[in-house]
Specification:
single chain; 118 residues; alpha+beta; two-stranded antiparallel sheet; elongated
C-alpha cells in the first residue's frame, strides 16, 4: 500500500521576497520577513572559518550570527569612510587647540640614525 504525499506548491521566485520560517501548534509556516530586515545565505563556508567565527563570537559574548552581522556592518562602515592621509588625520586631531602658526613641512631633510656606543 502506497501513501499519497502532498506535493508542496511551486515556489514563486519571481520577486525579491524573503521568508522566515516559524513554528506554530499546527506546524511550520512561512511568513514574509519584516521589511528592512534582509537575509543573506552564504554557501560553501570553509569548516575552519566557521570554527574561527564561532570562537570569536564566544569570546565576544555573541551568537555566531550576531558576530557575522557585526563583521559585515564594520566592513561596510570602513569602506564608506573617506580616505585621508596621515598628516590630515593628525591635523584634524589637534585642530582647535590654540596653535595659531602653521607647522612647516620638513621635506628634503635626512635623518641620521642614532649612534650607539657598541
Amino acid at each position: 500500500m502506497t501513501r499519497n504525499r502532498a506535493v508542496p506548491p511551486a515556489v514563486d521566485r519571481s520577486g525579491p521576497r524573503c521568508y522566515r520560517a516559524s513554528m506554530s501548534r499546527k506546524g511550520a509556516t512561512s511568513k514574509p520577513a519584516p521589511k528592512g530586515n534582509g537575509q543573506i545565505l552564504v554557501r560553501n563556508v570553509d569548516a575552519g572559518l566557521k570554527r574561527r567565527l564561532r570562537r570569536l563570537a564566544e569570546r565576544n559574548g555573541h551568537s555566531m550570527e550576531e558576530e557575522v552581522r557585526n563583521i559585515l556592518r564594520n566592513a561596510v562602515k570602513e569602506e564608506s569612510r573617506p580616505e585621508t592621509g596621515l598628516g590630515t588625520e593628525i591635523a584634524n586631531k589637534f585642530r582647535g587647540i590654540g596653535l595659531e602658526e602653521p607647522i612647516h613641512e620638513l621635506r628634503g631633510y635626512t635623518i641620521d640614525p642614532p649612534k650607539s656606543d657598541e
